[in-house]
């Protein structure tokens, strides 16, 4: 087994960096991964690794065993369990980590890990697992712990919504099936009529056929088509035109006209067209909606906070739900837990990482008696806090009280009508009204109705809307291959008009956890470097860790006496030398704003370690490409130490702002919008939530294992950020496809109308042409999107999963 | 007569379809297809 740097962890397939753990000839990147392997190995479950290459999930070794204490509470347990009779319990967990066959396999083999687990079933698309277990032998808490220990930590939220989702997707499927059935049968029944040119001699069949067709069309009209009627009616009442409206008009008119014609025996009606429209529209819609059932775009801050915390009351500790926490309660927060409320530190030493809340990349030291704000993450050790405000009144949540959050964003979005389709519809309606008006003025009311309905049916705007639905569906499907998930199809339209892109810095342009270390000052000897590294190895501070990684660890550890002053620095004796490593204040130096660690050896100032953010790969390239079409600005909650670096990367005149609070960010975006800009906001944390809310389009970046993201329109994988320009380019092609189809359908309609008006179109041809038009549109959409997709792939080959 | 027969048959399919949807057969279109491929044998590997 090679021990070269760059070897890969046997479990999680990450590159092994500093620590290497060996177990039975395999290398692991951390003890977490190793212990998972050991567990699986002990239970003969190593087939796990053979099923899928990317099977293992990196274990967060920092997570605390106390984290699940709230699962001991009976009310909480009762809320989570689906069923229990005291012996057997059923539970459904949402596990976002489920991603491959191996996950599926392992989770269904859980009973091998613990015999109290009786049965598990994975629902892959919803990323859910159903577990039946013996609750007398295995508590819910231990079950969750077991899952977490193999990397499948359940995502527990007390307000369940998933059920509703399943149901709606089922009815959608049902409607699709029913309308397909009716459409196909009506078509089949129409065949004899087509081929006999409307001359059927058997009288009983002649009357029976249309009646059966009518019967079949009823469920379509009264059940499946309601999907179009109800929303369009509701919005029409509010004075808003939505895309469903033309479909509804077409369907209703076709249906009534058919009834009329059948009643008077003029023809057998156009029920086949009507059911066809509904069926194809539903398919288009299903294509649009089905891409990602598991993603949640509407998370708010609540899902970020823990569900419960430990409260200390007179010598006892109990776990209580956050809602029950009151002012002046004493709560205990463990390492790596998120602080749910604004509070004052009363015991312990706090290092709070606010990066998610305000974008500061460096953790903040909090002293006894100082404020700690909700949303921060405690980094080392347990602390006790006195609660100042209830969870829903905290500094952080006050952002959600801003008016931008009052209006429901998704609702306003759904109402945006699609311009091209709407113009076309209005044109068609106008045309039919003109034709009708012409005949009315001639005093031919019978012909008037005829003209109005014929134009509406023949020049049905549905073909275009259909094309639109299919195009969007295809685009969304292709984009999801690149971990670029759209909330819904209306986002595509909005992306066309974007002319300003606002980036968040920490975690977006830069990598959240990585720091680039550099040293400045008198050069250090190898020995001194080693000694500094040895001393800092005692500290848990992220900066210290970065430096240790930068300097490298020695094999022989010299004896050192080290004292850590949390938040200030580290002092220590080693090889008869006295080191002080830390902040300006700690080293008695004039204070400055940038992030650094000073080095003082035997009271002599040597120099300092600088920290610079590490930018994601390809950022400069991305910005170079984006700046041709968009204005770019960067807003950051961090200090200005990166100013120089950023300015280099951005085009001249771009606005860069530092030290921005979430409210500032919101204001910034709002100001841009007031200037008439269409703003695309890209960020990753809660601190961007406000800006997200007011921006036209919000893109939330997600890291591999972090499945929390603020409410947004688009969720994209952070690794693919550098390809954003290409993705945007690709989306632009959506417009081209729509235009081509638009022209095509207009030509089709002109030709059709021309023949129809001259009465040269026999019913057979007309009836056959209608579905062919739909099918040809669907096919050409498919061809064109695939063409652009292949161009995208050729242009830049990035990982296509 | 043929028409009646065809309706009975196709109606049967429709009912089957409705029943399948209601019982959740289409909820997960990925998992079951993979599960069937897993070997249930205990594989003890010597490496």
Question: What does this molecule look like?
Answer:
The complex is a heterodimer of chains A (801) and B (47). Chain A is of the alpha+beta class. Chain A folds into six domains: 60 residues, no CATH class; 98 residues, Alpha-Beta Plaits; 115 residues, no CATH class; 96 residues, Calcium-transporting ATPase, cytoplasmic transduction domain A, CATH 2.70.150.10; 150 residues, 3-Layer(aba) Sandwich (Rossmann fold), CATH 3.40.50.1000; 103 residues, Calcium-transporting ATPase, cytoplasmic domain N, CATH 3.40.1110.10. Chain A contains 26 helices and 28 strands. In chain A, the strands form six sheets. Chain A has a seven-stranded mixed β-sheet, with helices on both faces. Chain A has a six-stranded antiparallel β-sheet with strand order 8-7-9-15-10-13, with no helix packed on it. In chain A, strands 18-23-22-21-20-19 form a six-stranded antiparallel β-sheet. In chain A, helix 16 runs antiparallel to helix 25 and helix 16 packs parallel to helix 26. The N terminus and C terminus of chain A are likely disordered. Chain B is mainly alpha-helical. The longest helix of chain B is centred in the first third of the chain and has 21 residues. The radius of gyration of chain B is 20 Å and the shape is elongated. The termini of chain B are far apart. The C terminus of chain B is likely disordered.
Task: For the structure shown, list the relevant keywords.
heterodimer, A: 801 residues, alpha+beta, Alpha-Beta Plaits, seven-stranded mixed sheet, six-stranded antiparallel sheet, 28 strands, B: 47 residues, mainly alpha, 2 helices, elongated, disordered C terminus
Main sheet overview of chain B? none
Low-confidence stretches of chain A: 1-5, 408-417, 797-801
Order of helical and strand elements of chain B: HH
Helix content of chain A: 40-55%
Broad shape of chain B = elongated
CATH top level of the largest domain in chain A?
Alpha Beta
Q: pLDDT average of chain A, as an integer?
A: 74
Q: Summarize the largest interface: chains and residue counts.
A: A-B, 27 and 27 residues
Largest sheet of chain A: 7 strands, mixed
The gyration radius over C-alpha positions of chain A equals 32 Å
- Overall mean confidence score, pLDDT of chain B: 71
Oligomeric state of the chains in view: heterodimer
End-to-end C-alpha gap of chain A: 30 Å
Number of helices of chain A: 26
- Poorly predicted runs of chain B are 42-47
CATH architecture assignment name of the largest domain in chain A: 3-Layer(aba) Sandwich
At CATH level 3, the topology of the largest domain in chain A is Rossmann fold
Range of strand content of chain B: under 5%
Rg of chain B to the nearest angstrom? 20 Å
Number of domains of chain A: 6
């Amino acid at each position: 087994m090679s021990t070269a740097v760059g070897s890969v962890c046997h479990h999680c397939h990450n590159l092994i960096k500093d620590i290497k753990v060996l177990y039975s000839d395999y290398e692991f990147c951390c003890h977490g991964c190793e212990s998972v392997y050991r567990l699986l190995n002990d239970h003969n479950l190593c087939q796990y690794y053979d099923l899928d290459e990317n099977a293992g999930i990196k274990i967060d070794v920092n997570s605390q065993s106390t984290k699940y204490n709230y699962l001991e509470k009976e009310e909480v347990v009762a809320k989570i369990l689906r069923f229990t009779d005291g012996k057997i319990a059923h539970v459904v967990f949402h596990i976002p980590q489920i991603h491959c066959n191996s996950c599926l396999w392992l989770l269904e083999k859980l009973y091998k890990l613990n015999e109290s687990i009786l049965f598990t079933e994975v629902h892959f698309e919803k990323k859910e697992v159903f577990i039946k277990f013996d609750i007398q032998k295995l508590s819910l808490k231990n079950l969750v712990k077991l899952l977490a220990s193999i990397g499948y930590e359940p995502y527990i939220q007390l307000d369940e919504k998933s059920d509703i989702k399943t149901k709606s997707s089922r009815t959608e499927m049902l409607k699709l099936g029913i309308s397909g059935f009716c459409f196909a049968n009506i078509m089949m029944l129409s065949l004899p009529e087509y081929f006999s040119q409307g001359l059927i001699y058997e009288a009983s069949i002649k009357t029976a056929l249309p009646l059966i067709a009518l019967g079949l069309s009823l469920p379509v009209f009264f059940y499946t088509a309601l999907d179009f009627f109800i929303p369009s009616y509701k919005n029409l009442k509010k004075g808003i035109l939505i895309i469903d409206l033309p479909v509804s008009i077409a369907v209703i008119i076709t249906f009534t006209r058919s009834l009329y014609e059948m009643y008077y025996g003029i023809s057998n009606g156009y029920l086949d067209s009507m059911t066809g429209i509904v069926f194809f529209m539903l398919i288009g819609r299903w294509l649009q909606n089905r891409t990602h059932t598991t993603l949640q775009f509407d998370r708010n801050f609540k899902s970020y906070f823990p569900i419960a915390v430990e409260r200390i009351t007179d010598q006892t500790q109990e776990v209580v739900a956050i809602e029950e926490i009151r002012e002046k309660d004493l709560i205990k927060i463990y390492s790596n837990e998120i602080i749910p409320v604004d509070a004052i530190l009363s015991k312990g030493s706090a290092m709070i990482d606010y990066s998610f809340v305000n974008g500061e990349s460096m953790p903040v030291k909090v002293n006894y008696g100082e404020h700690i704000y909700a949303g921060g993450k405690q980094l080392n050790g347990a602390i006790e806090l006195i609660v100042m405000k209830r969870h829903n009144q905290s500094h952080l949540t006050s952002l959600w009280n801003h008016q931008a959050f009052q209006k429901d964003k998704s609702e306003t979005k759904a109402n945006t009508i699609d311009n091209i389709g709407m113009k076309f519809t209005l044109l068609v309606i106008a045309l039919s009204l003109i034709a009708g008006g012409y005949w009315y003025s001639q005093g031919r009311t019978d012909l008037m109705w005829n003209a109005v309905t014929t134009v509406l049916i023949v020049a049905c705007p549905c073909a275009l809307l259909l094309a639109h639905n299919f195009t969007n569906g295809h685009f969304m499907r292709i984009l999801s291959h690149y971990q670029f998930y759209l909330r819904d199809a209306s986002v595509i339209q909005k992306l066309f008009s974007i002319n300003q892109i606002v980036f968040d810095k920490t975690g977006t342009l830069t990598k959240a956890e990585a720091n680039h270390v550099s040293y400045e000052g008198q050069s250090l000897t190898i020995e001194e470097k080693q000694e500094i590294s040895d001393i800092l190895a005692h500290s848990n501070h992220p900066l210290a860790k970065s430096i240790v990684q930068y300097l490298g660890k020695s094999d022989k550890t010299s004896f050192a006496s080290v004292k850590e002053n949390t938040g200030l620095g580290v002092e220590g004796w080693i090889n008869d030398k006295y080191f002080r490593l830390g902040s300006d204040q700690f080293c008695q130096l004039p204070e400055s704003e940038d992030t650094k660690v000073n080095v003082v050896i035997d009271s002599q100032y040597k120099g300092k370690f600088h920290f610079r953010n590490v930018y994601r790969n390809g950022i400069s390239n991305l910005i170079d490409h984006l700046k041709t079409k968009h204005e770019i600005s960067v807003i950051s909650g961090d200090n200005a130490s990166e100013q120089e670096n950023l300015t280099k990367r951005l085009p001249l005149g771009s606005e860069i702002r530092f030290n921005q609070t979430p409210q500032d960010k919101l204001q910034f975006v709002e100001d841009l919008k007031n200037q008439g800009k269409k703003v695309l906001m890209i960020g990753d944390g809660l601190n961007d939530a406000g800006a997200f809310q007011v921006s036209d389009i919000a893109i939330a970046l997600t890291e591999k294992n972090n499945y929390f993201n603020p409410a947004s329109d688009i969720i994209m994988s952070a690794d693919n950020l550098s390809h954003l320009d290409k993705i945007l380019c690709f989306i632009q092609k959506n417009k081209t496809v729509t235009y081509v189809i638009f022209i095509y359908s207009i030509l089709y309609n002109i030709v059709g109308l021309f023949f129809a008006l001259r009465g040269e179109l026999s019913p057979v041809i007309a009836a056959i042409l209608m579905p062919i038009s739909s099918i040809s549109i669907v096919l050409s959409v498919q061809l064109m999107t695939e063409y652009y997709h292949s161009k995208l792939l050729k242009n830049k080959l990035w990982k296509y999963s | 007569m043929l028409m009646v027969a065809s309706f009975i048959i196709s109606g049967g399919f429709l009912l089957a379809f409705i029943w399948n949807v209601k019982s959740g057969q289409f909820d997960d279109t990925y998992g079951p297809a993979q599960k069937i491929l897993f070997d249930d044998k205990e594989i003890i590997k010597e490496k």
